[in-house]
Structure formats: C-alpha cells, structure tokens
Write a structure and sequence with these properties.
Elements: H1 11-25, H2 27-33, H3 40-59
Amino acid sequence: MQVTITGRGNLEMAIRTFRKKTQKEGIIKEARRRKAYEKPSEEKKRRIEENITRKKRSRKGEYVA
C-alpha cells in the first residue's frame, strides 16, 4: 500500500489517507484479531456472527410485503 506525499504541508493529509485505506481494507482489524490466539471454536463462532451481521446489513434496505 502506498500513499504519495506532495510537499511538506501534506504530511497530515497523507497520514489521514493511509489510515482510511488501512481501515477500508481491514488491516487494522485483522492485526488486532491476530494479536492473541483464538481457539478454533471461538473462530467458528466469530465467523458465524460476522455472517449474520453482514446478512442483516444487506437486508436492511429490502422491503418485505
């Protein structure tokens, strides 16, 4: 991942851009998750919960009659 800096004053802007890119790609979340060991049963439970929340978000805009 690369963030280009143009000039001296844009360092803060480059840092902000870097943070947004890493957050969007999920790098920070992944690093925090891997910080400690996760048992296989806990990993399975976490993945199931993530899938449920993802499905709820996708259905949020749907209208069921």
